[in-house]
Every structure is written in structure tokens, then in C-alpha cells.
Predict the structure.
Amino acid sequence: MKPHGPIPPGYVADTDGMLLIGGDRADALADMAGDTPLFVYDSAMLTARVAEWRAAMPDAVQLHYAMKANPYAPLLVFMAGLVDGFDVASGGELKAALASGMAAQDISFAGPGKRDRELDAAITAGATLNLESAGEAERALSIAANLGVTPRLAVRVNPDFDLKGSGMKMGGGAKPFGVDANEVPPLVRRLIASGADWQGFHIFAGSQALDAAAIADTQAQTVALAGRLADEIGATPPLVNLGGGMGVPYFPGDKAVDAATVGIALADTLAQRSASLENSRFAMELGRWLVAEAGVYLTRIVDRKISHAETFLVTDGGLHHQLAASGNFGTVIRRNYPIAVMNAFGSEPVETVSVVGCLCTPLDRLGDQVALPRADVGDLIAVFLAGAYGASASPASFLGQGSAREMLV
Amino acid sequence: MKPHGPIPPGYVADTDGMLLIGGDRADALADMAGDTPLFVYDSAMLTARVAEWRAAMPDAVQLHYAMKANPYAPLLVFMAGLVDGFDVASGGELKAALASGMAAQDISFAGPGKRDRELDAAITAGATLNLESAGEAERALSIAANLGVTPRLAVRVNPDFDLKGSGMKMGGGAKPFGVDANEVPPLVRRLIASGADWQGFHIFAGSQALDAAAIADTQAQTVALAGRLADEIGATPPLVNLGGGMGVPYFPGDKAVDAATVGIALADTLAQRSASLENSRFAMELGRWLVAEAGVYLTRIVDRKISHAETFLVTDGGLHHQLAASGNFGTVIRRNYPIAVMNAFGSEPVETVSVVGCLCTPLDRLGDQVALPRADVGDLIAVFLAGAYGASASPASFLGQGSAREMLV
């Protein structure tokens, strides 16, 4: 038997033992959707999560949603009403962000390979470009001049530090992201001299960390770096985007990040900030932390079989919808995401089984030798933490299976 | 500097140093497609590959194409004219196989999680189901009875051996695929007794092996297993699908599998087969080996930047089209696929660079510290071995970038 990750708080069953999502029975949601597999996102959990963040953080700090975590259109519309801005990573995401109702001036666009037509679309819409290189800056200025528009331009800084313990390091050494810190001041001076509407800095040191002290330390370094850069430039950045970093517990032994600790430290950091940042606004940019726990992936058992004394539950889902949960996306050692039998939610496990997907590849495993209550053909399996980097980060066309359904409740 | 894998044979440049694919200049193909990124598949290479296989293998062995490797519709139509059958892994693939012109009786459908509607579609069409469990067999018989149709049913056998050195082990111990060998005879007797049109065995021990001796050894074990099962059942399997196994060299030091050695050994194995297999047909089921080398992924450089003295070429492509090449699909250690600058193909390298995709994640790297000729913004990068498990096996929706174009030339 191998352990699985912790089931996120807030999920309960009804008296039949059926998992409830947003107050609805999981089997009823699957019926309503018409078929499995299905992603369900709980809007009340999204609201609660944003409230938790606001309660923990200093009032002056804005909350941006990094929509790469989950770009499902109804979820975007919902999030647009909860957060202060969206961060997008492509022309496609920009279009979706605008369609959600988010105002263009509250949208920023980062990404190391923006094409001319993507720069054009952002400048035309009035969104902020987080510039990733001097070359991209020149392309943006040239496009804006041709359009006769004053572009809103921020500079993404490649910091000389990274976020300790982060799952994805985005700073510290040679990186394709942003402009090395020592090259930022001349670039910002160039932007200001060219008449661009300079929006400030985007500094993203890493993501998916669970250690509040490490996140707080990185934020202190980030604010200090922004202050040094502002001093050297001799101008106040209108906005300092501090990046993200707050992760969620996926695996056995993981503990939730303590948002209150992050918030207290951030208030302290901001109180001590350089005079050159006195009139700056600050933002955090979060994706996974906001949406991961609010999502559940529902898949139905198609076959139950025994091979060499091991039991397999074969489902109609798999890595084509949940690549990361199968352990095949950016992870070295495969570990089990939190997983449950929906119609026996909270019941004691009685057997050890492997839950596999329907794909004809040994990579397609959602739960490896996990202890579960008895489950049979037709029963529903839940894979948790499906609200971030699930549907949109998986190869939906693989083996001709097609996309999963999605639903916001 | 880190090495990259060997560029497949057959790729040459014109006198300008521009890579030719199917005789056409790569830049002209990108113009014709209208935009990059672009997958180009060379039909002449597909024809040559099938001819190479037929020259190496005994005449009696049929060639099936495992379309999961590349389901691009024009390529399927082309392959339908070259091979003897298609192997499909979902109802979606079955539909595409039928649309390609392949006859239903030459299509077989394997996959551990077939839904009732997929069984129904295959039985209705007259394709062969490779049954993965006794439970699936009962569902298929019941659906066929309801339809009033005699179903074509084969049994997928979970062999007690695996393919040594294979990238994907599909046999040897507890597996979600197929029926354990000792349970096959009663299941086949049940199928025959029920009036089904029993089609034989599907025995797939592993894939992506480069050692001809290991493949030959596995084929000998496979034929011996089929013989023992046929003896015990007391009936001749009409077809024995020997599976695949022949891989392609992706990484530095990899050597192409010697098809002639596999063919000579297979002829010997078949000459010595059990009398119970005397009237059986045999097939090999290949995906990657047939199509991988015929495909090239073309992506254009959007930015060239230096960070902490390292040079990055940022392209408009990435892991959303080439997940496996980024090292994030089923590999533990990231190594470089073969990669080249298209407009300086065959030129000596002059610098060490990292080729990254346009996604805002450190996972998105197509070439890590590779030695290449000088390349600038607007130049085209080629990632080879893009004919298999590229477009359809990558998360095209990730970060809103969308699918790549595809073209058969």
C-alpha cells in the first residue's frame, strides 16, 4: 500500500456516503453533465479562498489571478468578480480574460515568447505587457508607435534569488524569463524616455512552495530589489507585482501554507520599504493556490480486474485529463494525489487497489496501490486538487479520447 | 554543452543550407502553412519505412499501424494504403480509422477501459475487439447479442515476460492490460461456445526497444506462449498479433534497431512454431517505428536573449506541442531530442544555447545547452522525431496557445 495525498478541507458526504460538491451529490452532478469524466469546480470554495487571502494579507496588496491555472470560461467570469486583476500568458489567454469582463487595465501579460501579433493585441486593448527582454521592449515600442498608442509597459525582472522549496524555480541564475536585474534600470529609463506608460515591475521568483517563512523571505527580497531598482532609476514604479509562490498540499506529509504568517511578514516588509516605493501599489499573483482545491475530477469505473493477485480499477478517465496526477508532468518521483471512492466517501479502506485510466499505456495511473473502500464497475472515483493545471494542462487529444466535461457549481 | 540525439537519416539541406523535407525547403513549407509552429510529415519517408520493414520481415507477417502514434487524418489515409491493418485505442480512433478507408475487418481495438458505447461501435462496424478482461468479454457478448451480430473477438494476453530494455513495459507481472495467461484458455473457450467469431490473440510485451536480440527473444517467447495457449484451448488462433517493440533512437548514444536481425530471427521462430499455429496468420503492430522519423516540428525564434552569460533562443513553440521532447512525458532524466537550425542545417556549431518554448514555465525547454550554428530572431528551429507522440500527445490548450499546424508532404 502506498499513501495518497491529503483530501482538501471542506469536502463532506451526505448520509448515504456520497461526496457533496458545492452541496450537490457527485452522482447527480455527473448525471447533470451527461457523462463522465467531469471536472467540477466549487464557486463557494473560490469565494472562501479569496476571502481567506484578503483576511490574511495587508489591505494595500492587490490580488491577481494567474489564469493559466484554470482558464475555464465560467470560472474566469466568476473570478473576475472576486480579484483585482488577471495575469495572462498568451494572446489566447488575453482574449479570454477580456471576454470574462476583466478590465484591460487590470490585465498583465507575461511570457518569454510573445509574438508581434500578441504584443499588438495587448497594446491595442490597453493591457500591461510585462516585458521579458530588451528585444521585446523594442518590438513593443515599435508596434505602439505604428498604432499611435501609448503602451502600458512593465518590466519583468529576473531576480538573483529563488524561492526556497518551490516546485518551480523562476529566478536565481540564468533564466529565459525576465531581464537580469542589473539591466533593468537602463531599460526602464529607455521606456520612460520613449514616452511609454511605465507600469512598474513583475518579479516572480518561484511557485508551489508550502513554507510560509520561505515565501515571506522571498517577498522581503523582492520588495528590497524593487526598492534598489527604483532608487537607481530615480522613479517610483506604479505597481510591484510580487509574483506568487503559495502552493497547495498534493502529497502525503504536505502541509498547507500558513497564509496568516505570510501576510504578517508582508505587512512588516511593506512598512520598511524604501522611500522610492512609498507610492507604489503591490500585488500578488496566484493561480494554483486560489483554484486547485476547489476542483474535483470525477471518473467512472469501467472495469474491475485482478492480475497476478493485484486489483485494478479501470476508469473512463486518465492522464489525458489529469496529466500531473498521473505523475507525468514536471515530477521526478510519482506520488499519489488525494483520491477517493465518491459513493463511499469517508468510509474506511478495505482493500489496496491501483486506479488506472482508460489509455493503453502504463503511464496512465491515477492511484498507485492506494487503500480504498470497496468499489465496483459504475462507481465514481474522485481525484482532488483538480482545479488547477488539470483540463487545460493535459493532452486531451491523446488516443482519441477527447476532452472532459467541466462544470462550475 | 550537452549533446543532442542523432538526426534521423535522410534529412539534407539545399545549397543555401536550408533543410529540405520531402524535397521542399522548410521555410517554404512554413510559408505555405501560413504560420509556425508546424509539424511536417514526409510521405516518402513513410513509404520507405514500410518498404524497409517488408524487406526485413517474413512475407507471412502482416504489418499493422498503431494509430495512437500519429492520428493526423491525411497521414491515416496515406498509411491505410501502405499497411495491412490499423490498431485503435478508443471509439474516437475507431471512427478516424474507418474514415481513413481502412476496412473494418482489418481494424483491431485494444484498451483497458472500453466503454459500452465503444464496444457497441466496434461490434456494429465489424472491427475486432482485443478483450482486456473477462468482465469486458461478458459486456461485449451481451452487447452483440442485443445487436444480433456475431462479434469479432480476440483476447489480449498479459504475458509473463516483458521486453528487455523497452521504454514501456506492457507485460511481466500485474498489469491493467490483457488477461493473465493462465486465464486465457477458459475465456477463449467461453467465447467460442458463445458463438463469437474468435479472432486469436494480442500479445504486447513492451515498446520502444532498440536491441534487436531482445525483440527477437520476446517474439520467440510470444509465439511459444501463443502455441501453448492454442494447444490448451484445442483451436487455432486465426491471428496472432505479436505486438510492437521496435523503437527509434532519440538520445545521444542510441542506435537504430536492426530490422533485418529481427526479421531473420522471426522467420526462424515461425518455422519452429507449434503445429497448433500452423494455419495462423501473424502480425506486428508498430506505431513509433513507422512514423517518428518522418516528422519534423518547425518553430520560429521570437527572441534571442542572454541571462547571466547564457544564451536563450525563445521560440513560438514548446511543450504544448512537443511534451515528450521537453522531457516531461514518461521520462525520468531530461535529455535532448535531435535539434537543428533549419537555415544552417549541417553547418558546424559555433555556440552553446538553450532553446526554450514560449510558455511561462521552466519546464518548457526543447534543447538544453545544445551546440548550434548561430541563429537569430526569425530563424527556424527543427526538432526531429516529431512524427510520433507529438501533436496528439501534448497539452495543446495549455496557456491558451492552441494547436500547431500539421502538414503531410
